[in-house]
C-alpha cells in the first residue's frame, strides 16, 4: 500500500478508545478493513502479524493495515490506546470498522503482511514499521479518544489531531532511522532503565559512555530530544505504571524508584500523567475491554 506524500494525506479516525484488558484477551485471527495503531500504556501484549511475532511493552506501538492477518493478545493486565483510521479518506466522518472485520483461518497467518509506504521530505520513501517505540504521543492520543467519544464529535478536528499524531510518529521514525547506527549513549540509557531508583548524575552517566559531561549532555539531547534528568523521570513513571497495575503498594513503588516519600512520588506522578497514582490504578480497574462491535 503506497500512501503517497505525508503532506498530502487526509486521515480519518474510524474508532478510538483508551481501554484495559486482563491477561489472555485475544483478538483474532482476523483481518481489519482499515489501519490500526495499538499503543501500550502499561502491561504487555503480543502481536502475531503473519509469521512474525512482536512483544509490545509500555511506550511501544504496533501498526498494520487492511491486508494483514493477525492475532493480538494481552500477556498481562494491560492499558492501551487503540486507534483505527484511514490514511486518505474523502470525508473525515468516522466509518466504524466493526462490520468490516473478518475472521480468518490460521493458515492465513503464514502470509506476510502488506507493507505501508509513504514519502517524506528530505528522506524519500519509507516503510512504516510494524513495531516501534514512540514518545510524547499519549496526550494527542487522549485528545483523539476524547473527541471521538464526545456527544457532538467534530470530524475535522479529529482529522487535524490524527494528522498531528501521524506527523509526530513519522518524524520520530525518520530521526531514529538517521541515527540508529550511531547511538553513542546506549550504556547510559540501559543503566537508567535497569536501575531507575539510583540518583544518576550527568557525570556518572557520561563516564559509562566514556565522554566528558558537557559533550555527553549534547549527544544525549541530539539522540533522545530531552535531557538525562527528564529521561530518568519518564522511565520511573513508565515502571510505576506497571507496578500500580500489578497492585503493588505505593510505599514499595516509591522506595524502589528512588523517591524519598510517597508524597513526592505521588506529586511527581501526577505532574507527569495528570492523574494521581490511586486515580491511575482505579482507572485501570474501571476501563474495560471492548466487544468486537467496538474493536480493539
From TrEMBL:
Coiled coil: none
Keyword Transcription: yes
Chain residue ranges for the region called Disordered: 275-296
UniProt entry keywords in alphabetical sequence: DNA-binding, Transcription, Transcription regulation
Domain HTH araC/xylS-type, residue spans: 186-283
InterPro entries noted in UniProt: AraC-bd, HTH_AraC, HTH_AraC-typ_CS
Top-level taxon of the source organism: Bacteria
Keyword Lipid biosynthesis found: no
PANTHER family, A to Z: ARAC-FAMILY TRANSCRIPTIONAL REGULATOR, HTH-TYPE TRANSCRIPTIONAL REGULATOR EXSA
Name the record gives this protein: HTH-type transcriptional activator RhaR
